[in-house]
From TrEMBL:
<keyword id="KW-0012">Acyltransferase</keyword>
<keyword id="KW-0808">Transferase</keyword>
<dbReference type="Pfam" id="PF13312">
    <property type="entry name" value="DUF4081"/>
</dbReference>
<dbReference type="InterPro" id="IPR016181">
    <property type="entry name" value="Acyl_CoA_acyltransferase"/>
</dbReference>
<dbReference type="InterPro" id="IPR000182">
    <property type="entry name" value="GNAT_dom"/>
</dbReference>
<dbReference type="GO" id="GO:0016746">
    <property type="term" value="F:acyltransferase activity"/>
</dbReference>
<dbReference type="InterPro" id="IPR025289">
    <property type="entry name" value="DUF4081"/>
</dbReference>
<protein>
    <submittedName>
        <fullName>GNAT family N-acetyltransferase</fullName>
        <ecNumber>2.3.1.-</ecNumber>
    </submittedName>
</protein>
<feature type="domain" description="N-acetyltransferase">
    <location>
        <begin position="140"/>
        <end position="281"/>
    </location>
</feature>
<dbReference type="Pfam" id="PF00583">
    <property type="entry name" value="Acetyltransf_1"/>
</dbReference>
<dbReference type="InterPro" id="IPR016794">
    <property type="entry name" value="UCP21603_acetyltransf"/>
</dbReference>
Length: 281
């Protein structure tokens, strides 16, 4: 049922075409939402939550993914405030708010008084894209991971997550679920790594993909091997493989303060196209 003030309601399978038309307005920035919609058909049981839509004159003008993450899609600040008002009716069930900066800022301002102080807020995260060949020589050792790599891969994934997020993915009994996610990406052919002998020294994964773009996550270099160019050449190889076999544009977003990573991505040929923000609880 529509909110009489703001025209917000949960979307369903019948709204899929309209939703995909919305994500297509900025298909690289919206790759997560596009991927979630196509793989779940907007069915709540597969989403593990809901996808809200905001309507104007019967037309879908903005949306918001509501699962483990709260992700605004094509939302203006006014749309985000409407989603925030709806979010307040159910309390906080999400672990992060993430997406384009202006919409995340408006969403957060709308719920902050009720949802309490976040664990961390990262307000200016460059969103980067590359749509052509990498500008540096790819590392020929980069390959897709297999189940035989799990003894090296899983600890590297845990180390990356803990370093990036500040909390281990195994905290609170999450090890089984996180291992399943690592395995899922591996089985899809979305997990890439460089090995020096038997030791994993670089890794990255495709988090989500559509016909338009693939978003990279989990870029990590073994701490004692940083500064050797492993990230640059490793990412160059990942870009080549992903563009050839998954999607024509490769994207990611990075913390503003992570200067070494930003320099590495710039050398590979990534260019900033937007700013993201992440509020973590």
């Amino acid at each position: 049922m529509l909110s009489t003030r703001h025209g917000v309601r949960p979307l369903a399978a019948a709204d899929l075409d309209a939703f995909l038309a919305l994500t297509a307005r900025d298909p690289v920035v919206n790759v997560f939402a596009d991927y979630r919609a196509r793989t779940t058909n907007l069915e709540p049981r597969w989403l593990g939550g809901e996808m809200w839509g905001r309507f104007d004159g019967g037309e879908l003008v903005a949306a918001c993914h509501v699962g483990a993450n709260l992700v605004p899609v094509g939302a203006t600040a006014d749309d985000a405030r409407a989603f925030a008002e709806r979010a307040l009716t159910r309390g906080r069930t999400v672990s992060t708010i993430v997406g384009p900066h202006d919409a995340v800022e408006a969403l957060w301002n709308g719920v902050a008084a009720s949802w309490g102080r976040p664990r961390e807020a990262r307000w200016q995260q460059p969103h980067l894209e590359i749509a052509g060949p990498p500008a540096v020589e790819p590392d020929p050792r980069v390959r897709r991971t297999t189940r035989q790599d799990m003894a090296e891969l899983y600890p590297a994934c845990v180390a990356m997550y803990t370093e990036e997020v500040g909390v281990s993915p195994e905290h609170g009994g999450g090890a089984e679920l996180y291992r399943a996610r690592v395995t899922q990406l591996m089985n899809r052919g979305w997990s890439f790594a460089t090995f020096d002998g038997d030791r994993l020294v670089f890794k990255a994964e495709v988090a989500c993909a559509s016909a338009h773009a693939a978003q990279i996550q989990g870029v990590w270099v073994a701490p004692d091997r940083r500064g050797e160019g492993l990230a640059e050449r490793g990412m160059a190889a990942v870009v080549e493989m992903v563009r050839a076999e998954v999607a024509p544009v490769v994207s990611l977003y990075v913390n503003e303060w992570n200067e070494p990573a930003r320099r590495a991505y710039a050398r590979v040929g990534f260019q900033e196209t937007a700013r993201f923000s992440t509020v973590m609880f």
